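DNA-binding transcriptional LysR family regulator, Alkalibacterium olivapovliticus. Tokens?
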Amino acid sequence: MDIKQLVYFVAIVEHDFNMSQASKHLHLSQPALSQTIANLEKNENIQVFERSHGRLQNLTATGEVLLAHAKELIEKYDVMMEDLQEESAQLKGNIRIGIPPVVISVVFPEILPKLLAENPKIGFEVKEAGAMELKKDLLLQELPIAVLLKPTGLDSSTTEEVILTKDTLSAFMSVTNPLAEKDQLSWSDLHNQPMAIFDSTYMIHHQLLKKFAGEQIKPQLSLQSASWDLLLNSTRHSNLITVMPTPVAKYYSMEEVVRRDFDHPIYWEVILCRRKQKRYSRVEDYVFNYMRDYYELKNEE
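Tokens:
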């Protein structure tokens, strides 16, 4: 018994025992298909089909057993051949990844150049957008990999999530802002204060609105934008206050702008996400695991 015989056998069953349709599907003559099945039954001394007046009607009990095993064996055979072909080829292909702009700037400044340099035959397309938009693209299968923020709101039974890094949100403001004199802020300090925050495509926007409601405060939302550098710059020569991930201060220091912690901060957790599947493309699996392993080692340092 060989894999070809199993493929022909399954094709007949899937075409309702119609030899003519099965042979067309297999691009094979009907006599050749009939002979292959006859050889299978003869060589293995079994009968897999019930027949009536020379026509196939149904599976025998033996045929039912063979069908269950044949489907599994064919799937394993296809996976084996794909793995062998991929292993013999140099890693190459294209991959789309969705990453929020502020995450690219403060979390990915080292890994992306490293990933590109080590894999010159992989074409990377990075979509920069807020976590809310990237989540939608991931669910619509427009992105195989997306970097989101916790809580992602994704179903853990259908999505794989890996924490890349965890930090807090801080307030950024001009050195001349009266609140800059405080070493640490409470959320109530923001009541009636003019603020510049991320727009609704960003998870931080929704985290802030939830926090404001929970603390029963009403800041003046003077500016909402998807541009984190615009938000930060808007505080330099005004009384505007913005709230951003704490690591922003490490990578983008401005003499006119200071950072202040909150006494009860909102946590900023960056999550690597992909949909759970039986199999991933070699490139997709490689990139996901590379990013996961890179940050696991970085977090252990």
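Residues 93-164+270-300 form a domain with the D-Maltodextrin-Binding Protein; domain 2 fold (CATH 3.40.190.10).
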